[in-house]
Design a protein that fits this description.
Blueprint: E1 16-24, H1 27-44, E2 54-59, E3 66-73, H2 76-83, H3 86-94, E4 99-108
Antiparallel strand pairs: 1-3, 1-4, 2-3
Helix pairs in contact: 1-3
Length: about 110
């Protein structure tokens, strides 16, 4: 499923995890995606986002085109704050033409 810019669907109430799998169209676009998301990761793990509890980016060693983003938030307000950051806005505005596929899933922390 391909999402519109900045549309990550609706998270569950309360504490949740967000898992995103992105696949670049090719190795070059995956490199560009990864670089942009790493800039988002740096901010997410800084004092600018105190309520982003976890933000990790990994890349598949199998194909080099698949990127995993694993996020944890105490509530929707924390995710909204994350999405308002300039680095995320840059990613949101540019990722659509670079991806072959995207899968976004929320998991409630029970």
């Amino acid at each position: 499923m391909v999402y519109k810019t900045n549309d990550l669907g609706n998270p569950p109430e309360g504490h949740f995890f967000l898992v995103v799998h992105l696949q670049g169209k090719d190795k070059k676009t995956a490199d560009e995606l990864f670089s942009t998301i790493k800039a988002v990761e740096k901010v997410a793990n800084s004092d600018r986002e105190p309520d982003t509890l976890t933000y990790q980016v990994s890349r598949s060693e199998d194909d080099g085109e698949t990127i995993l983003v694993y996020e944890e938030y105490p509530n929707k307000a924390a995710l909204d704050h994350h999405k308002a950051q300039p680095e995320f806005q840059k990613f949101a505005a540019s990722f659509q033409p670079l991806i072959k596929d995207i899968n976004v899933r929320y998991y409630r922390k029970d």
